[in-house]
Amino acid sequence: MARRPLPRILSSGSASITRSREIARTAADNATDVLHPLITVTRGMRLLAGAGRHKWAATPRDRRGHVLFLVAACVLAVALIPYGPLLALISVMGAAAWRGRDRTPARTGPDEAGTARLRALYEALVPHFSVPDDPAPLFHHGGDWEKTFGTSYAFDADGRLTRLQVNYPAYFTDGDPAARSRVEQVLHAKSGRGREYHFAWDQENNHLLMTVLAALPTTIAAQRFVTAPGETVLGFTDADAVRRTVPVEDGDGTRDASPVIWRTGVRSTEPHLLVVGHPGSGTTTLMRSLALQALQQGDVLVVEGGGTGEYGFLAGRDGVLAVERGLAGTLATLEWAAHETERRLIAANRARQSGHPEPEDIGRPLWILLDRPSALGHLAAADGRQDPQELLRVPLRHGRAAGVTVVVAEQFDSLHALDETVRTHTRARVVLGPADSDQVEAVLGAQPHTTPTPDVPPGRGYTRLGSGPVLRLQVPATPDPYDDTTSEAHRTAVLDLLPGGPPAVEAVQEALPEPEPEREPGPETVSTHKDRLIGAPATAEG
Questions:
Q1: Residue 5: is its pLDDT beyond 60?
Q2: b/e string for 164-185 if b means 16 or more Cβ within 10 A?
Protein backbone atom coordinates (compact mmCIF):
# COMPACT_ATOMS: atom_id res chain seq x y z
CA MET A 1 0.00 0.00 0.00
CA ALA A 2 1.39 3.38 -0.97
CA ARG A 3 1.94 5.76 1.91
CA ARG A 4 -0.35 8.76 1.94
CA PRO A 5 1.42 12.11 2.25
CA LEU A 6 1.00 14.06 5.44
CA PRO A 7 -1.20 17.12 5.40
CA ARG A 8 0.58 20.32 4.45
CA ILE A 9 -0.20 21.93 7.76
CA LEU A 10 1.70 19.15 9.58
CA SER A 11 4.69 18.97 7.24
CA SER A 12 5.37 22.70 7.20
CA GLY A 13 4.13 23.51 10.70
CA SER A 14 7.56 23.91 12.33
CA ALA A 15 8.78 26.30 9.64
CA SER A 16 5.64 28.41 9.94
CA ILE A 17 5.95 28.56 13.72
CA THR A 18 9.60 29.62 13.49
CA ARG A 19 8.75 32.28 10.89
CA SER A 20 5.88 33.56 13.04
CA ARG A 21 8.17 33.85 16.07
CA GLU A 22 10.68 35.88 14.08
CA ILE A 23 7.93 38.21 12.80
CA ALA A 24 6.56 38.70 16.32
CA ARG A 25 10.02 39.36 17.76
CA THR A 26 10.76 41.91 14.99
CA ALA A 27 7.43 43.65 15.55
CA ALA A 28 8.04 43.82 19.28
CA ASP A 29 11.51 45.30 18.75
CA ASN A 30 10.16 47.90 16.32
CA ALA A 31 7.33 48.80 18.68
CA THR A 32 9.80 49.17 21.55
CA ASP A 33 11.95 51.51 19.46
CA VAL A 34 8.94 53.60 18.42
CA LEU A 35 7.38 53.73 21.87
CA HIS A 36 10.69 54.11 23.77
CA PRO A 37 10.16 57.87 24.49
CA LEU A 38 6.66 57.18 25.78
CA ILE A 39 7.95 54.29 27.94
CA THR A 40 10.68 56.50 29.35
CA VAL A 41 8.29 59.33 30.19
CA THR A 42 5.80 56.90 31.74
CA ARG A 43 8.51 55.33 33.91
CA GLY A 44 9.66 58.81 34.96
CA MET A 45 6.14 59.93 35.84
CA ARG A 46 5.69 56.80 37.96
CA LEU A 47 8.96 57.50 39.80
CA LEU A 48 8.06 61.16 40.33
CA ALA A 49 4.64 60.21 41.67
CA GLY A 50 6.21 57.71 44.05
CA ALA A 51 8.70 60.30 45.26
CA GLY A 52 5.83 62.76 45.81
CA ARG A 53 3.90 60.20 47.87
CA HIS A 54 6.94 59.45 50.04
CA LYS A 55 7.53 63.17 50.53
CA TRP A 56 3.89 63.72 51.51
CA ALA A 57 3.97 60.76 53.94
CA ALA A 58 7.13 62.09 55.56
CA THR A 59 5.63 65.58 56.04
CA PRO A 60 4.24 66.13 59.59
CA ARG A 61 0.50 66.60 59.84
CA ASP A 62 0.78 70.10 61.28
CA ARG A 63 2.71 71.25 58.19
CA ARG A 64 0.61 69.66 55.47
CA GLY A 65 -1.73 72.68 55.30
CA HIS A 66 1.20 75.00 54.58
CA VAL A 67 2.42 72.63 51.87
CA LEU A 68 -1.02 72.53 50.21
CA PHE A 69 -1.25 76.34 50.30
CA LEU A 70 2.20 76.64 48.70
CA VAL A 71 1.29 74.14 45.95
CA ALA A 72 -1.99 75.92 45.23
CA ALA A 73 -0.18 79.27 45.01
CA CYS A 74 2.31 77.82 42.54
CA VAL A 75 -0.48 76.34 40.39
CA LEU A 76 -2.34 79.69 40.38
CA ALA A 77 0.83 81.58 39.41
CA VAL A 78 1.52 79.16 36.56
CA ALA A 79 -2.05 79.44 35.31
CA LEU A 80 -1.97 83.28 35.28
CA ILE A 81 1.32 83.86 33.51
CA PRO A 82 1.38 83.73 29.68
CA TYR A 83 2.12 80.23 28.33
CA GLY A 84 2.40 79.03 31.95
CA PRO A 85 0.57 75.69 31.57
CA LEU A 86 2.53 74.84 28.41
CA LEU A 87 5.86 75.63 30.08
CA ALA A 88 4.82 73.64 33.15
CA LEU A 89 3.87 70.64 31.01
CA ILE A 90 7.17 70.80 29.14
CA SER A 91 9.06 71.02 32.44
CA VAL A 92 7.22 68.04 33.94
CA MET A 93 7.74 65.97 30.79
CA GLY A 94 11.45 66.84 30.76
CA ALA A 95 11.84 65.91 34.44
CA ALA A 96 9.99 62.64 33.85
CA ALA A 97 12.17 61.81 30.83
CA TRP A 98 15.32 62.52 32.85
CA ARG A 99 14.11 60.48 35.83
CA GLY A 100 12.97 57.55 33.70
CA ARG A 101 16.06 57.35 31.49
CA ASP A 102 17.86 54.02 31.14
CA ARG A 103 20.72 53.61 33.59
CA THR A 104 23.58 51.32 32.78
CA PRO A 105 23.63 48.65 35.49
CA ALA A 106 26.77 48.49 37.61
CA ARG A 107 29.10 45.65 36.86
CA THR A 108 28.87 43.12 39.66
CA GLY A 109 30.81 40.18 38.30
CA PRO A 110 34.59 39.84 37.95
CA ASP A 111 36.48 41.00 34.91
CA GLU A 112 38.32 38.68 32.56
CA ALA A 113 41.39 38.46 34.80
CA GLY A 114 39.24 37.75 37.87
CA THR A 115 37.25 35.11 36.01
CA ALA A 116 40.45 33.42 34.89
CA ARG A 117 41.79 33.45 38.45
CA LEU A 118 38.59 31.97 39.88
CA ARG A 119 38.52 29.28 37.18
CA ALA A 120 42.14 28.37 37.92
CA LEU A 121 41.30 28.10 41.63
CA TYR A 122 38.34 25.87 40.82
CA GLU A 123 40.44 23.54 38.65
CA ALA A 124 43.16 23.37 41.32
CA LEU A 125 40.62 22.31 43.96
CA VAL A 126 39.08 19.54 41.85
CA PRO A 127 41.49 16.78 43.06
CA HIS A 128 40.77 17.66 46.71
CA PHE A 129 36.97 18.02 46.57
CA SER A 130 35.95 15.22 44.20
CA VAL A 131 35.74 11.43 44.19
CA PRO A 132 35.19 9.11 41.18
CA ASP A 133 31.99 7.61 42.64
CA ASP A 134 30.14 10.92 42.92
CA PRO A 135 27.22 10.85 40.40
CA ALA A 136 26.76 14.65 40.50
CA PRO A 137 30.16 16.09 41.50
CA LEU A 138 30.31 19.68 42.67
CA PHE A 139 33.94 19.85 41.56
CA HIS A 140 34.97 18.36 38.23
CA HIS A 141 37.28 19.45 35.44
CA GLY A 142 35.58 21.93 33.16
CA GLY A 143 32.75 22.49 35.64
CA ASP A 144 30.94 25.65 36.64
CA TRP A 145 32.90 27.57 39.26
CA GLU A 146 29.91 29.81 40.05
CA LYS A 147 28.19 26.90 41.82
CA THR A 148 31.02 26.62 44.33
CA PHE A 149 32.12 30.24 44.72
CA GLY A 150 28.84 32.05 43.97
CA THR A 151 29.26 35.77 44.51
CA SER A 152 31.19 35.51 47.80
CA TYR A 153 34.50 36.86 46.52
CA ALA A 154 36.31 40.19 46.44
CA PHE A 155 39.40 41.54 44.69
CA ASP A 156 41.81 44.32 45.58
CA ALA A 157 43.10 47.08 43.31
CA ASP A 158 45.79 44.77 41.93
CA GLY A 159 43.29 42.09 40.92
CA ARG A 160 44.22 39.66 43.70
CA LEU A 161 41.66 37.90 45.84
CA THR A 162 41.00 39.34 49.29
CA ARG A 163 37.95 37.24 50.18
CA LEU A 164 36.58 33.94 48.90
CA GLN A 165 33.94 31.51 50.15
CA VAL A 166 34.18 27.93 48.92
CA ASN A 167 31.22 25.55 49.12
CA TYR A 168 32.60 22.01 49.29
CA PRO A 169 30.81 18.63 49.23
CA ALA A 170 29.65 17.04 52.45
CA TYR A 171 31.85 13.95 52.07
CA PHE A 172 35.07 16.00 52.29
CA THR A 173 36.99 15.13 55.45
CA ASP A 174 37.06 18.63 56.90
CA GLY A 175 37.80 17.17 60.34
CA ASP A 176 41.21 15.95 59.17
CA PRO A 177 43.90 18.60 59.76
CA ALA A 178 46.03 17.18 56.94
CA ALA A 179 43.18 17.46 54.43
CA ARG A 180 42.42 21.02 55.49
CA SER A 181 46.09 21.92 55.28
CA ARG A 182 46.35 20.70 51.68
CA VAL A 183 43.37 22.82 50.64
CA GLU A 184 44.76 25.86 52.45
CA GLN A 185 48.11 25.47 50.72
CA VAL A 186 46.42 25.38 47.31
CA LEU A 187 44.38 28.50 48.03
CA HIS A 188 47.43 30.26 49.43
CA ALA A 189 49.57 29.46 46.39
CA LYS A 190 46.93 30.37 43.81
CA SER A 191 45.75 33.57 45.52
CA GLY A 192 49.20 35.14 45.89
CA ARG A 193 52.07 34.69 48.28
CA GLY A 194 53.52 37.30 50.62
CA ARG A 195 50.20 37.91 52.37
CA GLU A 196 48.64 36.40 55.47
CA TYR A 197 45.43 34.46 54.92
CA HIS A 198 42.85 33.40 57.50
CA PHE A 199 40.83 30.24 56.93
CA ALA A 200 37.52 29.70 58.73
CA TRP A 201 36.03 26.21 58.31
CA ASP A 202 32.28 25.97 58.85
CA GLN A 203 31.97 22.19 59.11
CA GLU A 204 28.25 22.34 59.82
CA ASN A 205 27.35 24.11 56.57
CA ASN A 206 30.31 22.87 54.47
CA HIS A 207 31.74 26.34 53.87
CA LEU A 208 35.33 27.57 53.83
CA LEU A 209 35.89 31.32 54.10
CA MET A 210 39.30 32.66 53.13
CA THR A 211 40.15 36.28 53.97
CA VAL A 212 43.33 38.33 53.69
CA LEU A 213 44.35 39.81 57.03
CA ALA A 214 45.71 43.31 57.32
CA ALA A 215 49.12 43.73 58.92
CA LEU A 216 49.10 44.40 62.66
CA PRO A 217 50.27 47.94 63.54
CA THR A 218 53.89 48.30 64.65
CA THR A 219 53.58 51.91 65.84
CA ILE A 220 52.47 51.14 69.41
CA ALA A 221 55.40 51.78 71.75
CA ALA A 222 56.01 50.96 75.40
CA GLN A 223 53.62 52.78 77.75
CA ARG A 224 51.46 52.25 80.81
CA PHE A 225 48.53 50.10 79.81
CA VAL A 226 45.17 50.13 81.56
CA THR A 227 45.17 46.70 83.24
CA ALA A 228 44.06 45.19 86.54
CA PRO A 229 46.53 43.81 89.12
CA GLY A 230 47.98 40.54 87.89
CA GLU A 231 47.35 41.35 84.20
CA THR A 232 50.14 41.84 81.69
CA VAL A 233 49.87 42.91 78.05
CA LEU A 234 51.88 40.60 75.81
CA GLY A 235 51.01 42.56 72.69
CA PHE A 236 48.12 43.35 70.38
CA THR A 237 46.09 41.22 68.01
CA ASP A 238 43.13 41.41 65.61
CA ALA A 239 40.01 43.28 66.69
CA ASP A 240 37.71 40.26 66.27
CA ALA A 241 40.02 37.85 68.12
CA VAL A 242 39.45 39.20 71.66
CA ARG A 243 36.54 40.92 73.39
CA ARG A 244 38.53 43.58 75.21
CA THR A 245 40.12 46.84 74.15
CA VAL A 246 42.46 49.23 75.92
CA PRO A 247 43.31 52.85 75.07
CA VAL A 248 46.83 53.23 73.70
CA GLU A 249 48.93 56.11 72.44
CA ASP A 250 49.64 55.50 68.77
CA GLY A 251 51.75 58.25 67.28
CA ASP A 252 50.24 61.64 68.05
CA GLY A 253 46.77 60.34 68.95
CA THR A 254 45.00 57.84 71.17
CA ARG A 255 42.92 54.92 69.97
CA ASP A 256 41.50 51.63 71.22
CA ALA A 257 43.52 48.48 70.53
CA SER A 258 42.82 44.78 71.13
CA PRO A 259 45.37 43.43 73.64
CA VAL A 260 46.46 39.90 74.46
CA ILE A 261 46.16 39.80 78.25
CA TRP A 262 48.23 37.29 80.23
CA ARG A 263 47.05 36.78 83.81
CA THR A 264 49.50 35.76 86.51
CA GLY A 265 49.19 35.15 90.23
CA VAL A 266 47.38 32.68 92.46
CA ARG A 267 44.32 32.28 90.21
CA SER A 268 46.23 32.04 86.96
CA THR A 269 45.94 28.86 84.91
CA GLU A 270 49.14 29.62 82.98
CA PRO A 271 51.47 31.25 85.53
CA HIS A 272 54.70 30.91 83.50
CA LEU A 273 55.65 31.92 79.96
CA LEU A 274 57.95 30.54 77.25
CA VAL A 275 59.06 32.81 74.40
CA VAL A 276 60.72 31.26 71.32
CA GLY A 277 62.09 32.99 68.24
CA HIS A 278 64.97 33.49 65.86
CA PRO A 279 67.77 36.04 66.37
CA GLY A 280 66.36 39.51 65.81
CA SER A 281 62.75 38.35 66.02
CA GLY A 282 61.90 40.46 69.09
CA THR A 283 62.15 38.03 72.00
CA THR A 284 64.33 40.46 73.96
CA THR A 285 61.88 43.25 73.15
CA LEU A 286 59.06 41.23 74.72
CA MET A 287 61.21 40.52 77.79
CA ARG A 288 61.91 44.23 78.24
CA SER A 289 58.22 45.02 77.86
CA LEU A 290 57.31 42.44 80.51
CA ALA A 291 60.00 43.79 82.85
CA LEU A 292 58.69 47.35 82.60
CA GLN A 293 55.12 46.21 83.30
CA ALA A 294 56.20 43.96 86.19
CA LEU A 295 58.09 46.80 87.90
CA GLN A 296 54.84 48.70 88.40
CA GLN A 297 53.67 46.24 91.06
CA GLY A 298 56.49 43.77 91.78
CA ASP A 299 60.19 42.94 91.84
CA VAL A 300 62.20 41.73 88.87
CA LEU A 301 65.22 39.46 88.65
CA VAL A 302 66.88 39.38 85.20
CA VAL A 303 69.31 36.72 83.97
CA GLU A 304 70.83 37.40 80.56
CA GLY A 305 72.44 34.34 79.01
CA GLY A 306 73.41 36.01 75.74
CA GLY A 307 75.71 38.51 77.45
CA THR A 308 74.87 41.36 75.08
CA GLY A 309 73.99 43.82 77.82
CA GLU A 310 70.52 44.67 76.50
CA TYR A 311 69.10 44.80 80.03
CA GLY A 312 71.71 47.16 81.46
CA PHE A 313 69.25 50.04 81.68
CA LEU A 314 67.42 48.13 84.44
CA ALA A 315 70.42 47.94 86.79
CA GLY A 316 70.08 50.05 89.93
CA ARG A 317 66.38 50.81 89.46
CA ASP A 318 63.83 50.42 92.24
CA GLY A 319 62.38 46.90 92.19
CA VAL A 320 65.21 45.39 90.12
CA LEU A 321 66.85 42.87 92.43
CA ALA A 322 69.65 41.87 90.07
CA VAL A 323 70.73 41.86 86.43
CA GLU A 324 73.11 38.90 86.01
CA ARG A 325 75.16 37.91 83.00
CA GLY A 326 77.85 35.64 84.44
CA LEU A 327 77.50 31.99 85.41
CA ALA A 328 78.51 32.39 89.05
CA GLY A 329 76.15 35.30 89.67
CA THR A 330 73.34 33.50 87.86
CA LEU A 331 73.68 30.36 89.97
CA ALA A 332 73.75 32.37 93.19
CA THR A 333 70.76 34.48 92.14
CA LEU A 334 68.62 31.53 91.03
CA GLU A 335 69.48 29.63 94.20
CA TRP A 336 68.27 32.61 96.22
CA ALA A 337 65.07 32.68 94.10
CA ALA A 338 64.44 29.00 94.89
CA HIS A 339 64.90 29.62 98.64
CA GLU A 340 62.71 32.73 98.41
CA THR A 341 59.94 30.67 96.80
CA GLU A 342 60.13 28.12 99.60
CA ARG A 343 60.13 30.88 102.22
CA ARG A 344 57.04 32.45 100.72
CA LEU A 345 55.24 29.12 100.68
CA ILE A 346 56.07 28.44 104.34
CA ALA A 347 55.08 31.96 105.42
CA ALA A 348 51.80 31.80 103.50
CA ASN A 349 50.99 28.36 104.95
CA ARG A 350 51.67 29.50 108.52
CA ALA A 351 49.52 32.59 108.03
CA ARG A 352 46.60 30.51 106.75
CA GLN A 353 46.88 28.01 109.57
CA SER A 354 46.88 30.76 112.19
CA GLY A 355 44.06 32.67 110.51
CA HIS A 356 46.14 35.80 109.90
CA PRO A 357 46.57 37.66 106.63
CA GLU A 358 49.66 36.98 104.59
CA PRO A 359 52.75 39.06 105.44
CA GLU A 360 53.40 42.06 103.27
CA ASP A 361 56.86 40.83 102.23
CA ILE A 362 55.33 37.88 100.34
CA GLY A 363 52.45 39.82 98.77
CA ARG A 364 54.67 41.65 96.26
CA PRO A 365 55.02 39.58 93.05
CA LEU A 366 58.47 38.32 92.06
CA TRP A 367 59.35 37.98 88.38
CA ILE A 368 62.27 35.84 87.14
CA LEU A 369 63.21 36.72 83.55
CA LEU A 370 65.69 34.25 82.04
CA ASP A 371 66.93 35.06 78.53
CA ARG A 372 68.70 32.25 76.63
CA PRO A 373 69.35 29.73 79.43
CA SER A 374 70.95 27.29 76.99
CA ALA A 375 74.04 29.52 76.67
CA LEU A 376 74.54 29.42 80.43
CA GLY A 377 73.87 25.67 80.41
CA HIS A 378 76.75 25.10 77.99
CA LEU A 379 79.07 27.12 80.21
CA ALA A 380 77.96 25.19 83.28
CA ALA A 381 78.51 21.84 81.56
CA ALA A 382 82.00 22.87 80.42
CA ASP A 383 82.86 24.01 83.95
CA GLY A 384 81.32 20.96 85.63
CA ARG A 385 78.74 23.00 87.52
CA GLN A 386 75.00 22.79 87.94
CA ASP A 387 72.71 23.77 85.06
CA PRO A 388 70.86 27.00 85.94
CA GLN A 389 67.60 25.48 84.66
CA GLU A 390 67.66 22.94 87.51
CA LEU A 391 67.32 25.80 89.98
CA LEU A 392 64.08 26.84 88.29
CA ARG A 393 62.21 23.68 89.30
CA VAL A 394 60.98 25.06 92.61
CA PRO A 395 59.81 28.44 91.20
CA LEU A 396 58.15 26.70 88.26
CA ARG A 397 56.32 24.08 90.32
CA HIS A 398 55.29 26.25 93.26
CA GLY A 399 55.54 29.77 91.82
CA ARG A 400 51.82 30.29 91.36
CA ALA A 401 51.06 29.79 95.06
CA ALA A 402 54.09 31.84 96.11
CA GLY A 403 53.50 34.77 93.73
CA VAL A 404 56.58 33.97 91.61
CA THR A 405 56.37 34.22 87.81
CA VAL A 406 59.01 32.72 85.51
CA VAL A 407 59.53 33.88 81.91
CA VAL A 408 62.01 31.98 79.73
CA ALA A 409 63.14 33.16 76.29
CA GLU A 410 64.99 30.82 73.94
CA GLN A 411 65.90 30.53 70.26
CA PHE A 412 64.68 27.84 67.88
CA ASP A 413 68.15 26.36 67.35
CA SER A 414 68.55 25.78 71.12
CA LEU A 415 65.02 24.69 71.89
CA HIS A 416 66.13 21.11 72.49
CA ALA A 417 68.36 22.27 75.36
CA LEU A 418 65.41 23.34 77.51
CA ASP A 419 64.81 21.30 80.64
CA GLU A 420 61.73 19.07 80.79
CA THR A 421 60.44 20.99 83.80
CA VAL A 422 60.59 24.23 81.84
CA ARG A 423 58.67 22.68 78.94
CA THR A 424 56.00 21.23 81.23
CA HIS A 425 55.21 24.24 83.40
CA THR A 426 55.41 27.03 80.79
CA ARG A 427 51.93 26.58 79.32
CA ALA A 428 51.70 30.15 78.05
CA ARG A 429 53.67 30.26 74.80
CA VAL A 430 54.79 32.92 72.32
CA VAL A 431 56.48 32.39 68.94
CA LEU A 432 58.08 35.42 67.30
CA GLY A 433 59.71 35.96 63.95
CA PRO A 434 59.46 34.06 60.65
CA ALA A 435 58.37 30.47 61.31
CA ASP A 436 56.44 27.91 59.30
CA SER A 437 53.33 26.12 60.50
CA ASP A 438 55.25 23.08 61.76
CA GLN A 439 57.55 25.20 63.92
CA VAL A 440 54.60 27.12 65.34
CA GLU A 441 52.77 23.88 66.11
CA ALA A 442 55.86 22.40 67.79
CA VAL A 443 55.91 25.27 70.29
CA LEU A 444 52.23 26.19 70.69
CA GLY A 445 50.77 22.70 70.31
CA ALA A 446 48.38 23.78 67.54
CA GLN A 447 48.67 25.18 64.06
CA PRO A 448 47.62 28.78 63.43
CA HIS A 449 44.53 29.50 61.35
CA THR A 450 46.61 31.82 59.20
CA THR A 451 49.48 31.32 56.78
CA PRO A 452 52.77 32.62 58.23
CA THR A 453 54.69 34.97 55.97
CA PRO A 454 58.47 34.81 55.50
CA ASP A 455 59.05 38.54 56.06
CA VAL A 456 57.69 39.92 59.34
CA PRO A 457 58.72 42.93 61.46
CA PRO A 458 60.41 42.41 64.86
CA GLY A 459 57.96 41.46 67.58
CA ARG A 460 55.49 39.85 65.17
CA GLY A 461 54.32 36.29 65.81
CA TYR A 462 51.73 34.07 67.46
CA THR A 463 50.69 33.30 71.02
CA ARG A 464 48.61 30.70 72.81
CA LEU A 465 47.67 30.77 76.47
CA GLY A 466 47.23 27.21 77.69
CA SER A 467 44.60 25.41 75.63
CA GLY A 468 43.16 28.60 74.16
CA PRO A 469 43.14 29.61 70.50
CA VAL A 470 46.22 30.64 68.57
CA LEU A 471 46.27 34.43 68.17
CA ARG A 472 48.35 36.75 66.08
CA LEU A 473 50.59 39.00 68.15
CA GLN A 474 52.52 42.24 67.75
CA VAL A 475 54.76 43.16 70.69
CA PRO A 476 54.94 46.85 71.69
CA ALA A 477 58.14 48.53 70.55
CA THR A 478 60.45 48.42 73.61
CA PRO A 479 64.06 48.94 72.44
CA ASP A 480 67.16 49.34 74.56
CA PRO A 481 67.27 53.04 75.51
CA TYR A 482 71.09 52.94 75.60
CA ASP A 483 71.32 51.73 72.00
CA ASP A 484 72.53 54.38 69.55
CA THR A 485 70.02 53.28 66.90
CA THR A 486 67.03 53.86 69.18
CA SER A 487 64.91 56.85 68.29
CA GLU A 488 64.50 59.65 70.80
CA ALA A 489 60.75 59.03 71.14
CA HIS A 490 61.21 55.34 71.99
CA ARG A 491 64.12 56.12 74.33
CA THR A 492 62.02 58.62 76.25
CA ALA A 493 59.05 56.25 76.39
CA VAL A 494 61.15 53.46 77.95
CA LEU A 495 63.00 55.68 80.42
CA ASP A 496 59.76 57.26 81.61
CA LEU A 497 58.49 53.82 82.64
CA LEU A 498 61.51 53.03 84.82
CA PRO A 499 60.85 53.50 88.55
CA GLY A 500 63.27 55.21 90.91
CA GLY A 501 66.29 57.35 90.12
CA PRO A 502 68.97 56.83 87.50
CA PRO A 503 71.31 53.84 87.75
CA ALA A 504 74.50 53.99 89.77
CA VAL A 505 76.67 54.69 86.73
CA GLU A 506 74.58 57.72 85.72
CA ALA A 507 74.53 58.92 89.33
CA VAL A 508 78.35 58.80 89.45
CA GLN A 509 78.62 60.77 86.21
CA GLU A 510 76.19 63.41 87.49
CA ALA A 511 78.05 63.67 90.82
CA LEU A 512 81.41 64.33 89.17
CA PRO A 513 82.26 68.05 88.75
CA GLU A 514 82.98 69.61 85.42
CA PRO A 515 86.56 69.02 84.20
CA GLU A 516 88.86 71.96 84.78
CA PRO A 517 91.17 73.35 82.10
CA GLU A 518 94.57 71.77 81.93
CA ARG A 519 97.38 73.44 83.81
CA GLU A 520 100.79 72.56 85.02
CA PRO A 521 100.83 69.81 87.59
CA GLY A 522 101.24 70.92 91.14
CA PRO A 523 100.40 69.86 94.65
CA GLU A 524 96.79 71.10 94.44
CA THR A 525 96.13 69.28 91.17
CA VAL A 526 97.29 65.97 92.54
CA SER A 527 95.08 66.42 95.60
CA THR A 528 92.00 67.12 93.43
CA HIS A 529 92.47 63.98 91.35
CA LYS A 530 92.83 61.91 94.50
CA ASP A 531 89.54 63.24 95.85
CA ARG A 532 87.71 62.33 92.60
CA LEU A 533 88.97 58.75 92.52
CA ILE A 534 88.01 58.27 96.15
CA GLY A 535 84.58 59.89 95.79
CA ALA A 536 83.43 58.04 92.67
CA PRO A 537 83.44 54.50 94.13
CA ALA A 538 81.79 55.80 97.28
CA THR A 539 78.97 57.28 95.23
CA ALA A 540 78.59 54.06 93.23
CA GLU A 541 78.42 51.95 96.37
CA GLY A 542 75.88 54.24 98.01
A1: no
A2: bbbbbeeebebeeeeebeebbe
